[in-house]
Amino acid sequence: MNIYESKNNELYIDGISAIELVKKFESPLYVYSKKIIKKRFEDLKNAIIYPNIRIYYAMKANSNLRILEILKNEGAYVETISPEEVMIALKAGFKKEKILFTGINLSIPDMEFAYKNKILPNLGSLLQLKSFGERFPNSNVAIRINPDFGSGHHEHVVTGGRESKFGIFCSKENKDYLKDINKICKKHNLKIIGIHAHIGSGVLEEKKYLKLAEIILEIAKDFPYLEFVNIGGGIGVPYRKDESPFDIKSFGVEISKAMEEFVRKYGKQVQLAIEPGRYIVAEARTLLVSVNDIKETPKFKFVGVDSGFNHLIRPLAYGSYHEIINASNVEDEKEEVVIAGYICESGDVFTRSEKAIEKRQISKVDIGNILAIMNAGAYGFTMSSNYNSRPRPAEVMVCDGKAHLIRRRENINDLLKTQR
């Protein structure tokens, strides 16, 4: 689905001029497409023909209430990482039984919160399982397994394997973990109703995802009370034009076959759970920024904008590529520039690789132009900060030529409140 078009040499987002959006809501500005969010959820739901499916939206990718409400109305479940995410999901209207709490390094108050609020915990270590069982025996839980296999677009987002902090480690060579799990569960009368694994983020090869499914379904055979098997998230989106998209249709067919075979051998119906985050929201959001400065060194022509890694940290954190379009001058001849942020750090550059600053071919830029940083819907606002005491931008939802404010812009009063 393409909601972007050029009219009169300006970028339009779902029928609205990017220039007009900035005039109305100011810059910098996050702009979301309701159509794309719904379309990506429907694409995944329709691709998986296995009938017993739970699609957990991994809300760490983007936790805006309006986005959560859209997905709730589409029938989504939600995967949360913290008590605060749980509370936001409840505020958005998700029922408790549709929330999974995959907390990391949980404190005792975190466990108490999950238990008291009847939120299913997804526990990622033997010690966490033991601590929960000691305090809340006779409970249902899920567990997260590290299947000695990982993948992702950057080493920082690989969540499986021998260097990963996530999950209860297991491997073909060593199944002692199973004895330990069974011992804890028997002692505290815990019933494991869900098993989960996640290999990493930004995976574009469906074969890697299917390999994970094969591993976790083999492990799942050892757990007799399962209600669901959760194969995690991590489905990527193509940020570069030369990247091939994840083959969602082929994946849907193959994972459905795998689940049907598993259920036949397991002897009872089990739901398939999957946790997309990036796949649903990444392509739905554009960060609009204004050009405030232009300067040159013998090596680079720097275009300075009114945003930085405090609003979109992915280029600095991972060397991530985001296409950048001059929304004020879409079709003019190109020039080589570096797009630099306004944060007082040398690394605050939007056009970079993992190793270095990179030049980018962008239509001729002038002071006051609006630049559109594309595919910024995942891990943009949720990873933002107030570094340099800069407020975070407003967020707007667009659909069919209409725009609605879904989060107001922060101001100095918001920042001062946190220091009282």
Count the strands?
21
Beta-strand proportion: 15-25%
What share of the residues lie within helices?
25-40%
| Number of helices, where a helix is a run of at least 4 consecutive DSSP H or I residues | 12
Can you characterise this structure?
There is one protein chain. By secondary structure, this protein is α/β, with parallel strands linked by helices. Helix content is 29%, strand content 24%. It contains 12 helices and 21 strands. Strands 4, 14, 15, 16, 17, 18, 19, 20 and 21 form a 9-stranded mixed β-sheet that branches. An 8-stranded parallel barrel has the order 5-6-7-8-9-11-12-13, surrounded by 5 helices. The protein starts with a strand and ends with a helix.
Explain the layout of strands and helices.
Elements: E1 4-7, E2 10-13, E3 16-17, H1 18-25, E4 29-33, H2 34-47, E5 53-58, H3 65-73, E6 77-80, H4 83-91, E7 99-101, H5 108-116, E8 120-123, H6 126-135, E9 140-146, E10 168-169, H7 176-188, E11 191-196, H8 206-220, E12 228-230, H9 248-266, E13 271-274, H10 278-281, E14 285-296, E15 301-305, H11 314-318, E16 324-326, E17 334-340, E18 360-363, E19 370-373, E20 394-399, E21 402-407, H12 412-417
Parallel strand pairs: 4-20, 5-6, 5-13, 6-7, 7-8, 8-9, 9-10, 9-11, 11-12, 12-13, 15-17
Antiparallel strand pairs: 1-2, 2-3, 4-14, 14-15, 14-19, 16-19, 17-18, 20-21
Helix pairs in contact: 2-9, 6-7, 8-9
